[in-house]
Amino acid sequence: MVKFIVEDHDGNRQEIEAPDDMGLSLMEVLKASEYPVLATCGGMALCATCHVEVIEGEDELGEATDPELDQLENLPEYFPTSRLACQVRISPLLEGAVIRLRGEDN
């Protein structure tokens, strides 16, 4: 299990614990935890509605892929530590990270 912090649109933080042996994406875990993540494209890195900002732990997650960057660069707000939650896999690298929700809330 991996533990990380999620900060919602109101600035509230909650620790999330997720299995790191199922190949889940951060997007899937956020949706299962009932966060308002639209994920319109279903995790294909085509819509950027699962945009998150990695506040702490960004160095551990590595660089965004080119298709991910293509989507992020089209957003009105884009940060150097922005990622698409659908492209971040739950792994021990996420341990202790702080993730801020940035995508459109519904």
UniProtKB/TrEMBL annotation:
<dbReference type="InterPro" id="IPR036010">
    <property type="entry name" value="2Fe-2S_ferredoxin-like_sf"/>
</dbReference>
<comment type="similarity">
    <text>Belongs to the adrenodoxin/putidaredoxin family.</text>
</comment>
<dbReference type="InterPro" id="IPR012675">
    <property type="entry name" value="Beta-grasp_dom_sf"/>
</dbReference>
<keyword id="KW-0479">Metal-binding</keyword>
<keyword id="KW-0408">Iron</keyword>
<dbReference type="GO" id="GO:0140647">
    <property type="term" value="P:P450-containing electron transport chain"/>
</dbReference>
<dbReference type="InterPro" id="IPR001055">
    <property type="entry name" value="Adrenodoxin-like"/>
</dbReference>
<protein>
    <submittedName>
        <fullName>Ferredoxin, 2Fe-2S</fullName>
    </submittedName>
</protein>
<keyword id="KW-0411">Iron-sulfur</keyword>
<dbReference type="GO" id="GO:0051537">
    <property type="term" value="F:2 iron, 2 sulfur cluster binding"/>
</dbReference>
<dbReference type="GO" id="GO:0009055">
    <property type="term" value="F:electron transfer activity"/>
</dbReference>
<dbReference type="InterPro" id="IPR001041">
    <property type="entry name" value="2Fe-2S_ferredoxin-type"/>
</dbReference>
<dbReference type="GO" id="GO:0046872">
    <property type="term" value="F:metal ion binding"/>
</dbReference>
<feature type="domain" description="2Fe-2S ferredoxin-type">
    <location>
        <begin position="1"/>
        <end position="105"/>
    </location>
</feature>
<keyword id="KW-0001">2Fe-2S</keyword>
<dbReference type="Pfam" id="PF00111">
    <property type="entry name" value="Fer2"/>
</dbReference>
